[in-house]
Structures are given as C-alpha cells and as structure tokens.
Write a structure and sequence with these properties.
85% helix; membrane; cell membrane; rod-shaped; Tol-Pal system protein TolQ; mainly alpha; transmembrane; 7 helices; cell division
Length: 232
C-alpha cells in the first residue's frame, strides 16, 4: 500500500472534525470493551455463586444453620445469599412479633422481592451504555464520513481539473470514520444482547428461588401453628 494511503497517514491527515469523530468512537470502543470484560466476569461469578448456594441450600435441611453461617459474613453476601438472608431475617423478625401467618409471609416475600430488585440493579448496571454505543456509533461514524466527503468535493471546486488521485485520500479518510463506527457498534450490540439474555436468565433464577423459599417458609409457619395447637 502507498504510504500516502496508509491508515495512520489518512487519520493524521484528516480534517479536525473527522479526527474528533474518530477519537469519540475510539473512546467509546475502549470503554465498551472494558465494560464487556467486567460484565462477563460479574455474570460468570453470579451464576457460579447461585449454583453453589442452591446446591448447598437444597442439600441441607438446617435452614437456621445456613442463615447463621451467612450472618457471620453479612458484608460479603451476593445474589441468592442476599435474597435468602433478607427473606429469612424478615420471617424470623415478624414471627417474633405476630402469630398472623399472612402478615409473616407477606413481609418475608416483600423483603425477598426488594432483594431481587436490588440484585437486578447491580447486574444490569452499565448495560444501557452498551446499547447506546451500539445504536449511535454508526451514525457518529456516518457523520464523519459525510463531513469528510463534503470537504473533498468542496476542495475540487478550487481546481480546474479534478483527478481520482486528488479526491481519493479525502474519501478514504472519510470512510475510515464509518469503519470505526461499525467497529465500535458491532461488539457492543452482540454483547448487549448476550448479557441481556444472561441477566434475564439469572433474574428468573433469583425469582424462582424466592418463590420456592417462600413455600419452605410457609411450611415452617404451618408446622409452628400445628405445634402450638397440639400444645394448647
């Protein structure tokens, strides 16, 4: 390739507006990849912790023992651990205050729904940025392309005889903006869709556990009522 037509030469020789567009797109791409790597680790960790907790929880018959272990590291709880801790903590608190099972179950269920909502905020954090990059980067690149081509044809008006060699560099530098825009947008769209699917799957898992755990707590409440009746 002619050195005058190298990618770096075209970028350095581009108009200031096109260069600004390229810098914006490059920064968007860098931030996108940093977010993609971080979100991938976060979701893998959340899925692994959910699997480990469910295996330990359903494999044990001592709910109080599981709760006691979690309270010893309350500041480091994550995912299903927080949901379980919130539901069982509220269940125990209300059970000490009232014998109304409906109030107890509503309170524990509400505590778990709030915990699920907070977990959703954590795992969905920054995903809109990927969606934004994926949707607007091509248009930013297109703006740079249109501006570059416009400058190239405007410059032709100042010469008496136009040749392809005169207009080619300007058009090439303009098309680089479109290419960089697509380079930023395509990974952002791909990983946004992937992460959105993973987040939905994880939140469904959280919500299913909350419903199943509510059933477990309800059985405990019924046993307590039965025991109190027999005692009386």
């Amino acid at each position: 390739m002619n050195s005058d037509m190298s990618i770096m030469h075209l970028i350095l020789g581009a108009s200031p507006i096109v260069q600004v567009v390229l810098v914006i797109l490059a920064m968007a791409s860098i931030f996108s990849w940093a977010l993609i790597l971080g979100k991938s680790r976060q979701l893998r960790r959340a899925q692994r912790m959910a699997e480990d907790f469910e295996q330990d929880f359903w494999g044990s018959s001592d709910i109080s023992g599981t709760y006691s272990k979690l309270t010893m590291r309350r500041g480091t709880l994550d995912g299903l651990e927080r949901i379980f801790e919130a539901g069982f903590s509220e269940f125990g608190r209300l059970r000490r205050k009232t014998s109304n099972d409906e109030i107890i179950m509503d309170g524990s269920g509400r505590a778990m729904r709030i915990a699920v909502s907070r977990e959703a905020e954590l795992i969905e954090n920054h995903l809109p940025f990927l969606a934004t990059v994926g949707s607007i980067s091509p248009y930013i690149g297109l703006f740079g392309t249109v501006w570059g081509i416009m400058n190239s044809f405007t410059a032709l008006g100042n010469v008496q005889q136009a040749t392809l060699a005169m207009v080619a560099p300007g058009i090439a530098e303009a098309l680089i903006a479109t290419a960089v825009g697509l380079f930023a947008a395509i990974p952002a769209v791909i990983f946004y869709n992937r992460f959105a699917t993973d987040v939905d799957r994880l939140l469904n898992r959280y919500e299913n556990f909350a419903e199943e755990f509510s059933t477990v707590l309800q059985r405990q409440a019924i046993r307590r009522v039965g025991g109190d009746t027999e005692t009386s």
